[in-house]
Amino acid sequence: MLIGVNERMDFALDGKGLWKLDGQDSVRCLFISGNEMSLRLKDLTVTNGYASASSTFGYYGGAIYVGDGAVLEMNGCTVSSSSTASSGKGAGIYVNDATLTLSNTVVEFNVMYYGKGAGVYLASSSVFSMIGGSIKFNFARSASCYTSTSMEGGGLYVEGGSKAIISYGASIDNNIAFKGGGVFVASDGELVFVNASLMENSYWKLYLGAAYYAMYRSGCSSSYAYESYGGGLFANSNAKVVFAGSKVSSNVAYYHGGGIYLSSGSTALFSACVMSSNYAQHQGGGIYSRDSTTIMNDSAIVSNNLAGTSNR
Question: Which of 81, 213, 263, 311 has the fewest CB atoms within 10 Å, measured from its CB?
Answer without folding.
Answer: 311
